[in-house]
Design brief:
3 helices, seven-stranded antiparallel sheet, three-stranded antiparallel sheet, homodimer, globular, mainly beta, 12 strands
């Protein structure tokens, strides 16, 4: 099994969020897919340790926003590098509220969806959640969506348009790289309970750069 | 509900194939996603009318290849513009056979996976199939993967790297466009039983260009 084969899969980058029991939660994912058109339904895959999944299972609803290519790393770090257990990620940032009463970030976002959960599937470490789209809104049609590949370039401080992400990074970055998906945490330390915000692997799968 | 919001979702383009009861089947999809890393599992969504889904339900296995940016439209048309009910799409083309005995195309392909089905989920018009990855092989790491956006440009005879697909097409192409996903069938006629190879909508959702 050659892990490099997985680098050839293409994704966008999204923030999924919800609200339940007076708490907000949100996280960064790359696994959002439209699975049916009539009615429009989206699927997402979330790690079982993820606080956002726990709250979605309570609320039965979620918001999903499509990140733009010009989103800042601060925005991604806010939603990707900490847990909603420890912080309200929506504190002090521009946000909207969808028709299902879920908050969603509005900076660096080009489209958004509000979904009601119709089914879930346990797939091991993750749960696939299928949501029926109740609201769909294009917020900035001129902003290209951030691709997962360009996200890696952004993380590495450069944006060559077509170079595969695995061909660059080490040497210029201080931090830890997920050996599974290539995600890089720019940090001097790797928290023991760190979970890769993209593929969901735990800290044992990270290597020091 | 603004359908343009869905244009902001990013995908790759893949061919999924299988073999059962002495028959081969394969089709073009954009919905392949890695949903877990340990063990590695992929999800795909297939239209219930799709012959490939019917054979996967029998074989319990499938191959998935990642199309390269330089794949020819002939290759895509072979797998996307006809049904495996009517033709063996593997007749006369370069192909491999995975360890689960499924054929897969090798031209215009940069990576491949062989999967054993672990679960399925009915999501309406489509079925989500989750497969555990038994084999993963990078076939051409230098070939960029075809993105769904560039696929539309390729269909339209041009490849501007970052222009959203919905901003161009009509006027230069003779054919029919899927009003749901933007897929264009270059043809003088639209078969009554035509199903959009990307989003699975039937012919009634196509408009003449």
């Amino acid at each position: 099994m050659d892990p490099k084969a997985f680098f050839k899969l293409s994704y966008g980058v999204y923030i999924v969020s919800t609200s339940a029991d007076g708490k907000n939660a949100g996280c960064v994912i790359n696994t959002l897919t439209q699975v049916t058109a009539e009615p429009a339904r989206l699927s997402i895959a979330l790690n079982k340790n993820n606080e956002t999944l726990k709250l979605i299972e309570i609320s039965g609803t979620f918001s999903a926003v499509v990140l733009s290519d010009d989103v800042t790393m601060d925005q991604i770090k806010r939603f990707g590098f900490q847990s909603s257990r420890d912080a309200n990620k929506f504190d002090g940032i521009p946000q909207g509220r969808d028709g299902l009463n879920n908050p969603y970030p509005t900076d660096g976002v080009c489209a958004r969806f509000a979904c009601r959960v119709v089914s879930t599937l346990d797939v091991g470490t993750h749960v696939i959640v299928v949501g029926e789209v109740i609201e769909a809104e294009a917020l900035d049609m001129n902003a290209p969506a951030l691709t997962y590949s360009n996200y890696h370039h952004k993380k590495n401080g450069a944006t060559p348009p077509n170079a595969p992400s695995y061909q660059k990074d080490a040497g210029t970055v201080v931090g830890y790289r997920c050996k599974v998906c290539g995600y890089i945490l720019e940090s001097d330390t790797l928290p023991l309970d760190f979970i890769c915000p993209v593929c969901g692997k735990d800290a044992s799968y990270f290597e020091k750069l």
